[in-house]
Design a protein that fits this description.
Helices cover about 0% and strands about 50% of the residues. The protein has about 140 residues and is an all-beta fold. Strand 4 and strand 5 form a beta hairpin.
Length: about 140
């Protein structure tokens, strides 16, 4: 059986995809108890590759955070410690597909009394291209 090259026939097969990043600052003292907070709405057909929290100002001891694509969800991060400055979370082993579109939510495990964080989510719109073709001869 012969090999068939369809790379020129497949729509967008050789066009580059773009990694996108969304980020926002959250002041934890603004939470009322353990409310779910919707941060972003991501478009359809995205693969979420990473979710990180940059803890700029620590929250009180034992405060953790869940990040998910549903209210109360933790598919992007679970029990991320906010009680010390630094970066928590990271790359997702298999990624999370947004399907027809998805929101990104956060929820703390207890009512925070202090703290400032930046929530950063990386994703690839896998059916969208930037118009550039891959260069196989470089």
């Amino acid at each position: 059986m012969a090999n068939v090259d369809k790379t020129r026939l497949l729509l967008n097969a050789n066009e580059k995809k773009v990694r996108s990043v969304v980020a926002t600052r959250v002041q934890l003292a603004d939470f009322s108890g353990t409310d779910n907070l919707q941060l972003f709405v991501l478009p359809a057909n995205c693969l979420i590759t990473a979710a990180r929290v940059v803890v700029a100002t620590a929250a009180q001891a034992s405060t953790t955070l869940k990040i998910g694509t549903s209210a109360g969800g933790n598919d992007l991060g679970n029990a991320l410690a906010l009680s010390a400055a630094g970066v928590v979370g990271g790359a997702l082993t298999n990624g999370v597909d947004t399907g027809t579109g998805a929101s990104v939510w956060i929820v703390p495990n207890q009512a925070p009394t202090a703290g400032d964080i930046d929530v950063v989510v990386e994703f690839i719109e896998y059916r969208r291209t930037n118009g550039e073709l891959l260069n196989f001869n470089a």
